[in-house]
Design a protein that fits this description.
By secondary structure, the chain is mainly beta. The chain has three helices and 14 strands. It has two domains: 32 residues; 167 residues, Jelly Rolls (Sandwich), CATH 2.60.120.470. The strands form three sheets. Strands 3, 4, 6, 8, 9, 10, 11 and 13 form an eight-stranded antiparallel beta sheet that branches. It has a three-stranded mixed beta sheet with strand order 1-2-14, with no helix packed on it. Belongs to the thioredoxin family.
Length: 239
């Protein structure tokens, strides 16, 4: 069990070594950020954005509880879930493997995103910068069909997601992607994304015939609401 300010924030039950290492790295990063702030040098860097923010809304990606992030079917030789919500500008090169997430066995990715506050989510910005010079089917491409599920207590399995109606489903086309930043802005039906405590993003299909998908950054745009008083529980993995 992990405690913060005398409150349990997570329970780890028989994790595999890979997920345990990712979780401990997250704790280390949070500790380093706290030390920097307490020393009188808080981080003031603004997050990078690949698309313009809509009027009246702000970037609420900093409300993600990164200790509870989960990612399914990702290639561990590349970046992990925390890299997706990193503030820095993506490097955009195939050589910088740890700077982006790539799917593993096929084109599907499943990301579970818990929040520290209930959110009203206006839109999602996805950045994907694949190397379009490579015609190999094994090279990654951008997301095409994306499904969103809200307020789930845990990550969904792929079969479970296939059988559950999504809160919203989006099919991205070539014109949705900014050719300069590699970012697609997904406008959500905001009436369905009120008081969101967690969200699952399921990338079902990628562009073309490629068998891998690449994702560099995610930005969540909306409004913050009431602070949550809950815990993130890690359960045993079947992987």
């Amino acid at each position: 069990m992990i405690f913060k300010n005398a409150r349990r924030i997570a329970t780890i039950v028989d994790p595999n070594p890979e997920k345990l290492e990712e979780f401990l790295n997250g704790l280390k990063e949070e500790s380093e950020n706290m030390d920097t702030t307490e020393a009188g040098n808080p981080k003031v860097d603004e997050p990078w954005h690949g698309a313009e923010l809509p009027r009246g809304y702000v970037d609420v990606t900093d409300q993600v509880n990164f200790l509870g992030l989960e990612l399914l079917n990702w290639d561990s030789s590349h970046g992990n879930a925390r890299k997706l919500i990193s503030k820095d500008k993506p490097l955009g090169t195939p050589e910088a493997k740890v700077d982006f997430v790539q799917s593993d066995t096929d084109e599907q990715l499943m990301l579970y995103i818990p929040f520290m506050r209930n959110l009203k989510i206006h839109s999602i910005h996805l950045t994907s910068l694949p190397d379009n010079t490579d015609d190999d089917d094994e090279s990654p491409s951008r997301p095409k069909l994306v499904k969103f599920y809200t307020n789930t207590p845990h990550i969904l399995g792929f079969d479970e997601a296939d059988g559950a109606p999504p809160t919203q489903e989006v099919t991205l086309t070539e014109k949705d992607w900014n050719p300069t930043t590699g970012t697609a802005k997904i406008d959500l039906r905001i009436v369905k994304f009120q008081n969101v405590s967690s969200m699952v993003m399921f990338i079902v299909e990628s562009e073309g015939d490629n068998e891998k998908v690449r994702l560099d950054r995610i930005r969540i745009i909306g409004e913050t609401g009431e602070k949550r008083d809950g815990k993130i529980e890690k359960v045993a993995s079947d992987e």
